[in-house]
Amino acid sequence: MGRKGISALFFPSSKTLNSSPSFPSTHISSSPSHTFSESIMEENVENAESIITKWDPDSSSNTKFSYLFQQDRREATDFLKSVKDLHRAMHFLVSENSTSDKLVLAQKLMQMAIKRLEKEFYQILSANRDQLHPESVSGGSKSSNPDDGEDAKLEKAGQSITEVERSSALAMADLKAIAECMIGSGYGNECVKIYKLIRKSIVDEGLHLLRIKRLRSSQVHKMNWEVLEQMIKNWLNVVKIAVKTLFAGEKVLCNHVFPVSKTIRESCFAEITREGALNLFMFPELVSKYKKSPERIFRFMELHGALSKLWPETESIFDFESTSRIKLQALTSLRKLSHSVCIILSDFQSSIQKDSSRTLVTGGGIHPLTESSMSYLSSLAEYSETLSDIVAECPFPGNSSPFPESYTIDRSKPAASVHLAWLILVLLCKLDRKAGLYKDVALAYLFLTNNLQFIVEKVRTSPLKELLGEEWVCRHTKKVKLYALSYELQAWNKVLTSLPGESSSAMSPEELKDCFRRFNATFEEAYQKQTTWIVPNRKLRDELKVSIARKLVPMYKEFYEAHLGDLVGEKNLEVLVRIGPDDLGNYLSDLFHGTPFSSSFSSSSSFNS
């Protein structure tokens, strides 16, 4: 260390980090008390000389290669006390007797002592990289008071469970003691420079091990999604460690080592963590700028959710003015991710509305748009908390209140509930238009029945149920039944009206034969068509068959049993009356499986029997 002028040495410039209280410069006149005070101070210089010269790092003795705080902790304490006494003596002498020979000696001793303390400070930081790893610091020392004395720290260390914790506490106590001594002696800059150098390398190494690095937007833009997705997964796995362990631990250590100065604590922590923290929190923003597609929304929401959950810790850890840029970056990433999610949701809605496929689903089954959309929406519902936070800021496209007046929605529910209900309504409107492509009205209603049933079942058996609620499920279940009823009326009304009802008692044999012929023809037509139609949901399929049978079988059975005897003796009666009441159930069981008509309407088994 180069020599300094006496004034510069004793009174560091304003740029020097020194938070210790200055000693009062009391003027002492020429008096016996003045002589006594000066003698005391000169004695302090002489006492300091023996221990400081013993540990002179430039001497040729063995102490040149030894470390004071490793050799003798009691002597280390005495060394620090001697430096403080020396500084006090220098402060007195420069005020009262600036030409004293003892002052020149004190200057040399102070330079020697500071050089030793720099060496000790550097060695403790370097040798205890593992013990002072933020994980051990944040876990083992977070609750300790930064103002506790060294003895309290040593006592706490002796009660620690593991050797790592004991070593960590000892090292932290030594660093604190050296830092206080150097800062109090006017050498805060030298102390802080060493601290920043070592601790930043440790934090940077920790982030490197977590595979956090600086990326440019152009680099991310050129990546394959598979590569970027792996980086996202890694980030999600390590961000909690980086914030709660690495950065939190570093702040704990800064607070402990530099309790005497908020300015120094802030300066050290900001310079050590700023670059790494910005790289960490900038990554989600870079991802948010990547090309949008529906399936990527889930990774965006995972990034948003992780950042949101860590925001309280982030805000608390980086609470200095000098680290406000880090918090701003985290908030920027949250905002950019939200914007990207809103864009993807808007694009998803548009993709439903703009679906121009006119290909009819065979047999009125589930439309691919229904399957893909509901699969997507049920997956979105798994991120309900994050989704609600995001879509609360997403305006509905083109209208602040998109729901029709007849459509009730509980707006007290989370924002995700309202938005997903809206997207399902958009899907239902599109399906209604696709149903209009069917030329057969009955098949159109069956298509709507199938697709709405699929939607309701998907809601009922997924996280959508909790978001949309039981009332939504009940309301749309009723609508399924209304669609099913409309299907039955359109598909079977012609068959049902072919039977005469109560007025059949006065019918002539020819009229009876015409009734049987009409029934045979209309039933066979309905049967042939509807065996090719499909109802994928087994429960719905059975319910439809039962409902049709309850309407059709009793009417036909009553007519059959009342008038079959009136036609006995008629030529080709087995052709005229081909279907018996018991056969209807068998025929109806063939419906809705999507298999072409193959049954033969030969003479009924019941008639032949």
UniProtKB/TrEMBL annotation:
A GO molecular function annotation here is:
phosphatidylinositol-4,5-bisphosphate binding
| Protein's GO biological process | exocytosis; protein transport
Instruction: Write out the entry's keywords from A to Z.
Output: Exocytosis, Protein transport, Transport
The segments labelled Disordered in the record are: 132-159
Domain Exocyst complex subunit Exo70 C-terminal span(s) in chain numbering: 233-590
One Pfam short name: Exo70_C
Instruction: Give the matching SUPFAM superfamilies.
Output: Cullin repeat-like (SSF74788)
InterPro entries reported for this sequence:
Cullin_repeat-like_dom_sf, Exo70, Exo70_C
Provide GO CC annotations from the record: exocyst
Would you identify the family this protein belongs to, as annotated?
A: Belongs to the EXO70 family.
Name of the featured protein = Exocyst subunit Exo70 family protein
